[in-house]
Design a protein that fits this description.
The protein has 118 residues and is an alpha+beta fold. The chain has one domain. The chain is built from 4 helices and 4 strands. A 4-stranded mixed β-sheet has the order 2-1-3-4. Helix 1 crosses helix 4 and helix 2 (28-39) crosses helix 3 (59-83).
């Protein structure tokens, strides 16, 4: 179990850095829109490894979040298949890395929790 956890954490770090395909699974327009929304406090990272809308956001922003989350889901399924963990565990391991990269003032939502600023 420890070895699987460490493998997932290593793969999660690679995903968070964009090296394993999460970044390539999104359009540049979606990334730019979500990055701007994160800076404005409209979108945040969640402990499950997915983006969430904190407040506001029009249909285009919600579509950009959905596009990125679809790419993340595929990456988490791939990690799960390679490591023998669940896609949920892969997402949570990646979320740990994503949280570490959040800028001060950006939003984070723990599992079963509410949004808070980092």
């Amino acid at each position: 179990m420890f070895r699987k956890t460490m493998t997932v954490l290593a793969l999660g770090a690679a995903l968070a850095a964009g090296a394993a395909g999460v970044a390539s699974a999104q359009s540049a327009a979606a990334k730019a829109q979500v990055d701007a929304a994160k800076a404005q406090g409209q979108v945040g990272e969640q402990a499950d490894g997915y983006l969430g809308v904190v407040s506001g956001g029009d249909a285009a922003l919600r579509a950009a979040v959905a596009e990125i989350n679809t790419g993340r889901a595929a990456a988490y399924r791939d990690i799960a298949a390679k490591t023998g963990v669940t896609p949920e565990a892969a997402g949570q391991a990646t979320a740990t890395q994503l949280y570490a990269r959040l800028a001060p003032g950006q939003y984070w939502k723990p599992l079963n929790g509410s949004w808070s600023k980092k």
